[in-house]
Q: What sequence folds into this?
């Protein structure tokens, strides 16, 4: 799993720097608070303090996956838990 620099909103994987938008970084922080636990769209919306709405959670998760997943269409780090929401699994 890439390491995160909180001061710069970027991830590092080896020598590669992955820049995150403020919203992507916030979303990653939200999931990192409950690693291994599924979060519903409503929980993500509530914890984002107005940065993301329940209608845009899916879009933002897709954008974040494009940056952190080796295969965004088959995510292993930020997974969908059917009927529950999304879950961060950093040890994948």
A:
């Amino acid at each position: 799993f890439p390491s995160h620099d909180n001061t710069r909103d970027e991830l590092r994987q080896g020598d590669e720097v992955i820049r995150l938008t403020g919203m992507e970084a916030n979303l990653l922080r939200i999931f990192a608070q409950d690693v291994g636990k599924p979060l519903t769209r409503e929980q993500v919306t509530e914890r984002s303090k107005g940065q993301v709405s329940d209608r845009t959670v899916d879009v933002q998760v897709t954008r974040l996956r494009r940056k952190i997943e080796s295969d965004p269409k088959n995510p292993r780090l930020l997974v969908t838990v059917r009927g529950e929401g999304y879950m961060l699994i950093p040890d994948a």
